[in-house]
Amino acid sequence: MAVMRRRSIGALAALVLGCCAGAALGGCGSGTKTVSVAGAPATSSASGSSTPASTATTASTATTPPPASTSSTPASEAGGTSAPSQTTRTATEPAFTHQETRTEGLAQALAVLQAHGYTARETSQYHAEQTLRVLVGAKSGSNDGYDQQAFFFVGDRYIGTDTKEPSATVEVISQGDTEVTLGYPLYRPGDPPSSPGGGQATVRFQLDDGKLTALDPIPPASSTSVPSRL
Question: Structural domain boundaries of the chain?
Answer without folding.
Answer: 98-214
